[in-house]
Amino acid sequence: MKTNSDRIYSSKIIKAGALLADTRTLFANWDEAASVSENLTRFRRENIFGKASRSRVEDILAIFRQRYLTAEHLTKSLAVLVKGGFPTEGLDRIFYFHAAQSDKLLHDIVTEVLLPLQQQGRDDVLIEDIQRVLARWVDEGKTTGRWSEYTILRVAQGLLSALRDFGVLRGATNKQLGPMFLPVEAFAYVAFNLRQNQPSGERLIDHSEWRLFFLSRESVEHFFMEAHQRRLLEYHAAGSIIRISFPAESVEEYAHVIVERSHRTS
What we know:
Blueprint: H1 20-28, H2 36-46, H3 54-68, H4 72-83, H5 88-102, H6 104-119, E1 124-125, H7 127-139, H8 149-165, E2 169-170, E3 175-177, H9 184-195, H10 201-205, H11 217-229, E4 234-238, E5 241-245, H12 251-265
Antiparallel strand pairs: 1-3, 2-3, 4-5
């Protein structure tokens, strides 16, 4: 029998997809001096998202809590990026990274389904590709409940829609894989976050989470070299010894750094 910890996939994506515009609204109105609860209470009262129903607002806020509001330093860093005018395309990739960290289903659809398709040279992504994998995961007891065929369809549709909005897929109706544009400043922000739990330079380059962006080791190395040239970080490689350092101690401080650098190059 599967335990609760084995049931790692939820159907929350049905209620809320990428929500990129609402996420930017959230952090543009964020009060760093107030607690998470105080901010959310004010957002409900002022209806800053302009939603017609209270239940819809609650669905959105629940997703935001899961994705972006679990740690104060993370929340503050995203508020710095949004209020500092960090370019939208870079923001969307950063929101995608954090969404995938908080939602195992979103994460694994990319790394275990889309990445192999991309490596096989497939461009098209059919909803049947996603439904087939979801049905297998349901049978294996990996979902929070026994999903019906209709629920599997809704989850598959929600995943494809969210991944299109996050920039992983293209196409309004027929979804396709394509090169994912990742600004170097957004890459550097992700690298800083990954470095928190992986101080080794070589292991950071080989970190499994780069799969979320379909990046090979060679591509990751190229990004680090470009980030070094842009003075976003220090990257030095001598044989098998790789040293990577950042000009900030906290992710909030680093958010200020990449906002400043992005304005210099824009």
